[in-house]
Write a structure and sequence with these properties.
Blueprint lengths: L2 H8 L4 H8 L9 H8 L5 H14 L3 H5 L3 H13 L1 H9 L20 H11 L15 H25 L3 H31 L5 H6 L1 E6 L1 H4 L9 E8 L5 H20 L10 E2 L12 E3 H10 L3 H7 L3 E5 L1 H17 L6 H14 L17 H15 L11 H10 L5 H25 L10 H10 L11 H23 L2 H8 L2 H5 L2 H11 L4 H12 L4 H18 L4 H15 L5 H7 L3 H11 L1 H9 L18 H14 L3 H24 L5 H27 L7 E7 L1 H4 L9 E9 L5 H20 L14 E2 L12 E3 H10 L3 H7 L3 E5 L1 H15 L6 H17 L18 H15 L11 H10 L5 H25 L10 H10 L7 H23 L3
Parallel strand pairs: 2-3, 2-4, 7-8, 7-9
Antiparallel strand pairs: 1-2, 1-5, 6-7, 6-10
Helix pairs in contact: 1-2, 2-4, 3-6, 4-6, 4-7, 6-9, 8-9, 8-10, 9-10, 10-13, 10-20, 14-16, 17-18, 18-19, 18-22, 19-20, 20-22, 25-26, 26-28, 27-29, 27-30, 28-30, 28-31, 32-33, 32-34, 33-34, 34-36, 38-39, 41-42, 41-45, 42-43, 43-44, 43-45, 44-45
């Protein structure tokens, strides 16, 4: 193989330069195969080769290690190929090349923090055992010794990091060692500063001032980068000195630390020591006493400062003083989420960080951009601060431990936590590898192809021999960013967080004492009973119990916003127990933007929905998605019914499935209605579609049963009447129908009639008869055929010809009026078309005689006088009362009988469409139509609300304040506005009655 090909295979970018460096005299005599085997281990072999040649020039003995087998030389080549800066350091200080005289471990451990502290203190000749060490080396000599020993520590760490079998697994340990190394450097810098301060103050005064260095940010959390500012806060203790003198000395000591770490010198500075997170920032004093810190945080601190204190940890100086500081700020940190607007302030800060990224950096940002490290950190910290006040297991500083704790506590789903942790480690490793190369503070992805190729290799562990292309690295990074952003937006903006933040720590812990008082204050009538439900839900150490403990303090408040929180909590318990250990249920309530609040509101405001959810708890899944709450069309329901019938030939089994589908769809419609996703007209149409699908299914099953022993002799048609025909039904509506049949050719009329009677009789029983086992919480569809010709005295079903004969000879105007709502519902399509053609001339006559008009008015007056229940208040009866449903519908129907022959706009089974059509052709004033429709819709809404609230049908506006409050909530009125609903209905119905009397009676 040619040299050029070997260079390409080894990963070189600059072949010409590579050949030149390979020809260097320092490498003369080295086995090329062994050399290339080593260089292939390097992420950037170009840099590794150049650094190797320069190091051998300074330290010829290195040739032995360079020529050794890869097992021995691996640390050398990996470090030189991953960090040009560490190569430069070793060129300056070749005595530290002994860092490579180690056997790399695939599972390394982080160095002990105490060992690092001792090494750095000894480098400046300070006693590690002293309570307040003082260095023997000062000035440039001390600074150089300290910085050199620190960088030797970096080389030791880089060997472990780059040779670890799984770099992602080792990443947290690398961050911890970097933070410990930085803490050790600051400890040594403080020792130097104490020695230097003795030149300006007496040694006794300097010794009397205690100084604790509090690490903040990544250093405090022990997840530091290879090169990063080290954020600190200084706390002093004055001893025998007065505070002004102690502050002066403390300021000198703190300034001396920065000087030792970062001032210009022969050995370059390490990183910036940044004290800007201190109280009052740059405007405040550099050092403060503990009491001064406490005073500031208690009175002046902003929310972001408590978020920053989450990472606070003593990293150097007086350990006892540092511990006192940590103990003093801890209660402030964990109560900070209760500050007004805390959650939104954290979210706003995250948005501001993103908004201030320079445009040319936005797409390259690993740390600050969308899907970057800050998204992970802000999400985790917000969850910690909100929930950590009651759950001490969340009080950890580093991000990976916090993610694990949040997952263990159920605050993040296990799969989400695993993904978040993996993504965070990947981004941090990416940041580490980029910074390690030049030890330069950057959070931007490189743009040069050679740099990207080296970075892609550096991300892999030692057991991978591949060299990924830059495109593969870019794709992996983009995928990670998408994953992080999706998780961030879903978790960081949870609505639960705002509510949870407002709870006190006692309320959040759900202790019996706090819960009893809070339940009573929230409006639970039986706090003791509620506590029994809470204890049943939260007992034990299971993940489910932990999630319930997290959710219930918030859900209790939402349940209490309902009219009956006690019943709501009981229903919540039953639903939760029914779903058992179902993996999605509690996670959905925790993570969804709407599900938890929707569930609480329906359970405490609706007996109907609560009963239905208890027997079909899997439907709770719909609450988290508006898409799942869209009512199924008739066509979709019918396709499902046909599929079920094809697999279940037994009539009882088929009907069970048909009725279960109807029960399910009523629940879906009711939940969508409660969520404000449907208006009154859409609710009526959706319920009508559900009933139609069930009736059609029952008809097909009935036909199958009846024709099991004989051939089909007739086609049966079910015609919807009344509000069912107008597709304007509510949750308590029966199905008013009439039945039509037409015998098949060659079948005797009496035989066809007899079979039709059997089919309609079976159809009714299939829809209403009890099943074994029973369908729990079913609202049985009662089929009422009383509107047929001759009423209850007439035959249950007639042939089309019989209807034609009856209507020709005997039909009365009230029957024509009833036919205005007739709509084919189920059965033969040709028969349906023929029936409609038969009745259209009757219900849409060319004209209505004055005698028939008077008869309509007479019957309406009789209905008002005779059918209103005894003792009922006409002003409050929704159907038959003044301005109620009957008034509006009879008015529309009279206009249809009088004018539909002339105006096609009136040829509809819908009351709403008929009134709108009447306005369109000038038969009614638009203002009158608006009044009529508002009254009609509100009465319909109240009627449905009665069923929703109690589970029972009622045509009366409730008088009980509690019932009226529940009905008002369903009708869209706010809490405590029951009287407003009552006033609105009475006013609207009075106005509707006025329009009715003026138009209907001509008054």
């Amino acid at each position: 193989m040619s040299l050029a090909r070997r260079l390409i295979a080894a990963g070189f970018s600059d072949l010409e330069n590579g050949e030149r460096w390979l020809a260097a005299p320092e490498l003369e005599g080295l086995d090329q195969d062994v050399l290339f085997a080593g260089l292939q281990l390097a992420a950037n072999p170009d840099t590794a080769l150049q650094s190797l040649v320069r190091l051998i020039e300074k330290h010829p003995d290195l040739r032995k290690l360079a020529a050794a087998e890869p097992e021995r030389s691996e640390p050398l080549y990996r470090v030189l190929g991953a960090s040009e800066a560490l190569g430069e350091f070793l060129i300056r200080h070749p005595k530290h090349l002994d860092a490579f005289d180690v056997t790399a471990s695939p599972e390394p451990r982080a160095a002990d923090a105490a060992v690092l502290r001792a090494r750095l203190l000894q480098s400046v000749r300070a006693d590690p055992k002293s309570a307040r060490p003082v260095a023997a080396l000062t000035g440039q000599e001390g600074y150089e010794a300290l910085r050199t020993e620190y960088r030797r520590g970096l080389v030791d760490l880089a060997v472990k990091d780059l040779c670890a079998a799984d770099p992602l697994d080792f990443m947290p340990a690398a961050g911890a060692e970097l933070a410990d190394l930085a803490g050790a450097a600051i400890e040594a810098a403080l020792a130097v500063s104490r020695a230097e301060a003795a030149g300006h103050f007496s040694a006794a005064e300097v010794a009397d001032v205690g100084l604790a260095v509090i690490g903040m940010g990544k250093c405090g959390a022990r997840e530091l980068n290879y090169i990063s500012d080290v954020d600190v806060i200084y706390v002093i203790e004055s001893g025998e000195l007065d505070d002004p003198r102690a502050n002066t000395i403390g300021t000198a000591l703190a300034s001396g630390i920065s000087r030792a770490i970062m001032s210009p010198g022969r050995e370059p500075g390490l990183w910036e020591v940044d004290a800007n997170l201190r109280p009052e920032g740059k405007s405040g004093p550099l050092v403060r006493t503990l009491a001064s810190h406490q005073s500031y945080y208690a009175r002046w601190a902003e929310s972001w400062e408590f978020q920053a204190l989450l990472k606070a940890r003593t990293i150097a100086g007086d350990a006892e003083l540092g511990a006192s500081y940590e103990a003093a700020v801890a209660p402030l940190i964990w109560s900070s989420a209760g500050r007004e607007g805390f959650v939104e302030s954290v979210r706003s800060m995250r948005r501001r960080v993103t908004e201030h990224i320079p445009a040319d950096e936005e797409q390259r940002q690993i740390k600050l951009g969308r899907g970057g490290l800050r998204d992970v950190e802000f999400t985790v910290q917000l969850l910690q601060l909100v929930h950590g006040k009651s759950d001490e297991t969340l009080r950890c500083r580093d991000t990976t431990s916090a993610i694990a704790a949040l997952s263990a506590g159920g605050y993040i789903g296990r799969s989400d936590a695993a993904e978040f942790d993996r993504d965070y480690r990947y981004l941090r490793l990416l940041e580490h590898r980029i910074q390690l190369f030049q030890l330069r503070r950057t959070h931007l992805m490189p743009v040069k192809e050679a740099s990207l190729r080296a970075l892609a290799k550096a991300m892999l562990g030692p057991f991978s021999s591949e060299r990924p292309k830059p495109d593969a690295l870019a794709a992996a990074w983009r995928s990670t960013k998408r994953s992080v952003r999706e998780l961030h937006e879903r978790i960081f903006y949870r609505p639960l967080l705002n509510t949870a933040a407002a709870l006190s720590s006692e309320e959040a812990r759900l202790t019996p004492e706090a819960a009893q008082g809070r339940l009573a204050a929230l409006g639970y009538l039986d706090p003791s009973g509620a506590m029994r439900h809470i204890e049943a839900l939260t007992a034990g150490v299971s993940r489910r119990a932990a999630l319930q403990r997290q959710l219930l303090p918030i859900l209790l408040g939402w349940l209490a916003e309902g009219v009956d929180p006690d019943a709501g909590l009981l229903a919540f318990r039953r639903v939760s127990e029914a779903l058992g250990t179902t993996h999605w249920y509690l996670g959905m309530l925790r993570d969804s933007t709407a599900a938890a609040e929707r569930l609480c509101h329906v359970l405490s405001n609706s007996r109907l929905i609560a009963d239905l959810l208890e027997v079909s708890p899997e439907s709770v899944a719909w609450l988290g998605s508006d898409k799942d709450l869209v009512p199924l069309t008739f066509e979709a329901q019918w396709l499902e019914i046909v599929s079920k019938m094809s697999r279940h030939a037994e009539p009882e089994s088929a009907m069970r499935l048909i009725r279960l589908i109807r029960r399910r769809e009523i629940l879906r419609i009711a939940i969508a209605d409660s969520a404000g996703l449907l208006d009154q007209d859409q609710v009526g149409a959706a319920l009508a579609d559900t009933d139609r699908a069930a009736v059609l299914g029952a008809l097909r099953v009935a036909e199958t049963v009846v024709t099991a022993g004989e051939p089909l002799k007739t086609h049966v048609l079910v015609v919807a009447m009344g509000r069912q025909g107008g597709r304007e039904i509510g949750y308590g509506s029966d199905a008013d129908v009439i039945y039509v049949h037409r015998g098949l050719p060659g079948v005797q009329e009496d035989e066809a009639q007899q079979q039709a009677l059997q089919i309609v009789g079976r159809l009714s029983s299939l829809l209403t008869q009890p099943l074994k086992p029973a369908i729990l919480a079913e609202r049985v569809l009662m089929v009422d055929a009383d509107l047929r010709p001759e009423g209850k005295s007439g035959p249950m079903v007639r042939s089309l010809e019989s209807y034609a004969e009856y209507y020709r000879r005997w039909s009365l105007v009230w029957e024509a009026q009833a036919l205005l709502r007739a709509r084919p519902m189920a059965g033969d399509d040709e028969l349906a078309a023929d029936f409609v053609a038969l009745i259209d001339p009757l219900r849409y006559p060319e004209s209505l005689s004055e005698q028939d008009a008077r008869e309509v008015r007479r019957v309406k007056a009789r209905v008002e006088a005779e059918r209103l229940p005894r003792g009922a208040d006409p002003a409050r009866h929704l159907k038959l009362g003044r301005g109620g449903l009957s008034d509006v519908e009879w008015l529309a129907q009279l206009l249809q009988l009088q004018h539909a022959g002339e105006y096609p706009e009136l040829r509809t089974t819908s009351t709403v469409e008929a009134l709108e059509g009447a306005a369109a052709v000038g038969l009614l004033e638009p203002d009158d139509v608006e009044i009529l429709l508002r009254a009609w819709r509100l009465a319909s809404r109240i009627r449905s609300a009665n069923v929703i609230w109690t589970g029972r049908a009622s045509d009366v506006l409730p008088s009980s304040r509690r019932d009226l409050e529940a009905v008002a909530r369903w009708c869209g009125y706010g809490q405590g506005n029951a009287a407003a609903l009552e006033e609105d209905y009475l006013r609207l119905s009075r106005r509707a009655r006025s329009v009715f009397e003026r138009v209907f009676y001509g008054q």
